[in-house]
Design goal:
- This protein is α/β, with parallel strands linked by helices.
- It is about 35% helix and about 20% strand.
- The longest helix is centred in the middle third of the chain and has 22 residues.
Length: about 230
């Protein structure tokens, strides 16, 4: 079982609690293979680009209503940052080492979302369906079956929507056992900056509309592609 570390939780009240929020947890593979080709450095740059674009493209209310959490996973699962408004994000540099305890990371991500929805409920805050956004260059080294079943149940009951983006040698066959096939994408050249800018634009589109499918109208970067089913 992966050891859980916790850092940087933000327990401040919900900002603009009467406006509709959208929550997104990033599950980030920081296993040793992410050292290859400087992938971990590009991942760190992508997180910084996410905050920069979001801060520069939204008004103060919108920025306060997009809540982001960051979970990294290698030999351990670390809550790098609990849910916080994107304007208060502190994208700390991530280090790559060890294996890929994705199953435990998925469980932690779902736990964080469940807790955040309770916080919204207590504050009377409306919200869009939360997102899980997983980035990996491999496949789980731990037992992911229970997490996959839980995620399937949460998606079927419209409690969360989950995406997976794979780079380099990630295993799409195993990812199809965890994520909906249509929500699995590949990413060329570790273009995390392009990816995170896309996520920022997608979250902004959801936040600005009553229709969650608005995210689908955002143009994907050229480096991002669908994974063939066969």
């Amino acid at each position: 079982m992966a050891q859980l570390q916790q850092m940087g939780f933000n327990d401040t009240p919900v900002k603009y609690s009467t406006e509709k929020h959208v929550a997104c947890v990033f599950l980030l593979d920081t296993s040793g293979s992410m050292m290859q080709g400087g992938a971990i450095d590009q991942l760190n740059a992508g997180l910084r680009a996410f905050k920069e674009q979001t801060m520069n493209s939204m008004d103060s209310r919108a920025k306060a209503c997009i809540d982001v959490a960051i979970v990294s996973f290698n030999n351990t699962v670390t809550v790098v940052q609990g849910f916080t408004p994107v304007e208060d994000m502190d994208p700390r540099p991530l280090q790559a080492f060890g294996q890929t305890h994705m199953g435990a990371a998925l469980e932690e991500g779902m736990d964080l979302i469940t807790k955040q929805k309770k916080i919204y409920g207590s504050a009377g805050t409306p919200y869009f369906r939360p997102w899980i956004f997983c980035i990996t260059d491999g496949a789980p080294n731990d037992d992911y079956r229970d997490a996959a079943e839980r995620l399937k149940w949460m998606e079927e009951n419209k409690k969360v929507v989950a995406y997976c983006v794979g780079v380099d040698n990630f295993n799409p066959e195993i990812m199809r056992q965890i994520f909906r096939p249509e929500n699995i994408f590949g990413l060329r050249d570790c273009d995390f900056t392009g990816l995170f800018k896309f996520v920022s634009s997608s979250l902004a589109a959801v936040r600005a509309s009553s229709d969650e499918s608005s995210a689908l109208n955002v143009q994907v970067p050229p480096s991002m592609f669908n994974i063939p089913l066969n």
